Amino acid sequence: MWLAQLLDRNRQCFPDKVALADAYRSVTWSQFHERVHRLARGLAALGVGHGDRVAVLSTDRIEVLETYFAAARIGALFVPLNHSLAAPEVAGVVERVRPRVVVGESEVLRRFPDLPAGRRIALDEPAFAQLGAGEGGAALPEVADTDPVAVLHTSATTGQAKGVTVDQRSLRSIALGWLAVARPDQEAVLVNCCPLYHGSMVVTLTYLAAGATAVLLPGFTPQRALAAVAAHRATHVWLVPQMLRFMLQARSSHTADLSTLREVLYGAAPMPPEVYAEAAERLGCGFRQVYGMTEVGGPFVTLGPDEHPAPGEVGEAIPAGRVVPGMSVRAVDGDGRESAPGAVGEIVVRGPGVMQGYWNDPAATAAITTPDGWTRTGDLGRIDPGGRIHLVDRSKDVILRAGQNVYPSEVERVLRLHPAVLDAAVVGVPDPDYGQVPKAYVVTGGDPDRAALQQHLAAHLAPYKRPRHIEYIEQVPRNPAGKIVKRLLPT
Question: What's the predicted TM-score (pTM) here?
Fold first, then answer.
């Protein structure tokens, strides 16, 4: 019962220390522990039992984590739902997982009128606070580490999100491996800028395991994040690179007190070298890269502050880092054989952090799992002699131009190096002569100088890598994790 053990340990060691803070209140480890156990009994009294699902539909706030821990304490599975999805998308997830109850903010629940009315619980209304408020009650059950604890949905950059079933053993393995190398202490204060409905929330659970305080934001804005770091004297902040870019651009970044920051944790998308260089220069703190995947338990690779380049020495890309203790990683070729040292292959992962499988989808589970038990990430990369993983691109995004591989991430990186380019996305489009050619979608700050951009590309890329077509758009579509949603680009 990893999450129960986490609560028991921190209540015992740090009873009066703040565990969680949000826009409305804060709770100590002792208060968090008590509320989770009362809420667990309240859910049990409603008929929620072992193996049932508890869906959660809310912005980030303390009650969300209370519900996650309470469901886990009675052997139920918590199912975070993305409140930014359209009503039919949420309804589809609910139909697939069939939750016993849906817990959510009243305003958010009203946006989804087709959810089962009899199974709704508004977490910001008195009835939720009273749930399990009575004294006594039946003893809570024992829960095994191998029991499923959550159904976490993927970011769905290419289609319908898949439900990833993880057990408590997965959360424990990733947390202990991560903490062994990142080594945060109980004095750490983590401002979490990422949504708790995504697999990235495992990062927050991991820092809670160390006894850290987690500060939750109801939604990201650069001003809100900067204010939270200053107000809570945060030592760590967890975000995606686009969020960091927006924070640096905010006027308040020059006046906010960020002097307590020790580390900026970033992940979900490549860090643009120019953003890292500016942030490292201005913030003067360490940076930690987080490379993870919901299917393998979340953050399974990290690059620590000591391995990051100096601000003026950033190369073409920053390595993802080394695998955490307890997990194993390889790069393999198309036949599943381990790639030669330094050769590009698909990154595969094995270890106790890996998911149990996709929810009620054995065919999809089999498609991502190799016969000898490795989980395929779909990411292409190479592993250097020091064990550092260098990511190249997503395997499904690689453009095959007349037999030559073009990696969209490389072209996107070069495009963003141009001072007039604010953002860029690259995809492959059919071509009668070459099979596929790169097409770029570019966001600029004004009227684009097309000739200057072509000259820039010619100076940095081989001819076969240069986009044959460039379309200027107002915004590159990204999901809340900062990943480009290429299926939403104009056709």
Answer: 0.83
